[in-house]
Amino acid sequence: MQDYQKRLALNLLAYAVQKNVDLAELCSRSGIELTELRSESSPSPTTQQINALWLAATELSNDSLFGLHFGESLQVSALGVVGELIRHSRTIGEALTHAAAFSHLITDLLTMEVARSEKSFTIRFIPSTVARRESPLMFRQVMDFFMAFTLHEVDGLILKKIQPRTAKFSVESTELAEYERVLRCQSIQNASIYEMELDSQFWDEPILAADYDLQAVLLRKVSALDEAYTNTKSLSERINNFLLANAYLGVPTLDAIAANLNVSSRSLQRKLQEEGVTYQQLTDSIRKSLALHYLQAGQYPVKEVSYILGYNELSAFNRAFRRWTGTTPVSYRKQYAGAIQPGASIYS
Description:
It comes from Spirosoma foliorum. It holds the Pfam family Arabinose_bd. Keywords: DNA-binding, Transcription, Transcription regulation. Residues 237-335 form the HTH araC/xylS-type domain. The protein has 348 residues and is α+β, with helices and mostly antiparallel strands. The chain has 3 domains: 1-63, no CATH class; 64-217, no CATH class; 234-336, Arc Repressor Mutant, subunit A (Orthogonal Bundle), CATH 1.10.10.60. It has 19 helices and 5 strands. A 5-stranded mixed sheet has the order 1-2-5-3-4. β1 and β2 form a beta hairpin. The longest helix is centred in the middle third of the chain and has 20 residues, at 212-231. The protein is globular.
């Protein structure tokens, strides 16, 4: 089975070397043994090692936008079978759909979501709240990387240059010009969410390397990788990943999740109990993450956020949110709107 976190780490090292970073020092600072990283039989780097790798690469390259520039330069083929699936998709829309569906194979720091409307489509990057809290500097580099890579991964594969209508993410005013260049977007809004909106014309743009027969073979391979990946995870992790990946559908009932996993509701409850967690605790955690995400986005009224998260009464959502954060949804949104102003940074 391909280890995509190893593959991404190796590509990061290769890019850092091109930026005149000393490979031995970078590995030493990260606690990474290059021979182990190259070995298929060795375990993946730990979360601490990956965090240290991003931070050391940023420092040693003297590039505060290391992640952004790495994402701009990386070729889609660097992602192995997943990259080939994207490269041989029929259209941009299909490629992005595949990228979103299998993003968890590449990283556990975020999930990717694509939402369509009549005139545009939006690519959303929903981050892990744990990573954001525990290592904000590394988190910024990773988010910059995935936004830039998602935009540039089809460079040379289509006859148009993809240019987002708008982009929203945390950005320093002094670095805005470089983000505008890399993301090809003159309408960047400083925000705590991460998303890019593109004109609907790009959705059906044909990919030059499209190959339906090869794509079918690659899709089977990637699906097998996904199944193998899933089987290595605990049941609670699998449910958590499913809930995040299908967040736009709302929070399903226990019976619905059990049916999706082909087990009985009673069996699901018993297995979760063995892992020391309940389905209610999992859904509460997801609801909290999604509530913060939607309120920070500022695109939905509080009542609609409550409905999306499965609360029949706004008062029930208010009580739950106060239990999670100590404040109400309305107060939280006002506080966040005041904290994230143009030119401000959530990292300062």
